[in-house]
TrEMBL record:
Keywords: Signal
InterPro entries, alphabetized: Poly_export, Poly_export_N
Organism placement in taxonomy: unclassified sequences, metagenomes, ecological metagenomes
A molecular function (GO) term: polysaccharide transmembrane transporter activity
Domain Polysaccharide export protein N-terminal per the UniProt entry, residue ranges: 13-87
Pfam family of the protein (one): Poly_export
Name of the protein in its database record: Polysaccharide export protein
């Protein structure tokens, strides 16, 4: 039985010190000369595959660092385009309880 409290959360603010990992989904909105929305999931290899920029290593980095890195790359490599990066969905975390549990 899956406890809904342990399911991935969608569209919730994460603290800037949140550590990005495989299974997290980032929402990247491009605006300016190009308007586009992307949902980029961190793969098992720790990367997101950004269509115009290629793979970007993000796992293990703080969300604030990932946010700045993507926004900076977009601004420098895509002329006249800016990016807004948010956390679309956090990864699921499995918790195993061993021993006696009152309400597992």
């Amino acid at each position: 039985m899956l406890n809904p409290a342990l399911s991935p959360l969608s569209n919730v603010p994460v603290p800037s010190n949140y550590q990005v990992g495989p299974g997290d989904t980032l929402s990247v909105q491009l605006y300016g000369n190009q308007n586009q929305d992307y949902q980029l999931t961190v793969g098992r290899n720790g990367q997101i595959d950004f269509p115009q920029l290629g793979p970007i290593n993000v796992a293990g980095q703080l969300f604030s660092v990932v946010q700045s890195e993507i926004e900076s790359r977009v601004a420098h490599q895509m002329i006249g385009v800016h990016a807004s990066v948010t956390m679309s969905e956090t990864r699921a975390i499995q918790v195993f309880v061993m021993g006696d549990a009152f309400r597992p």
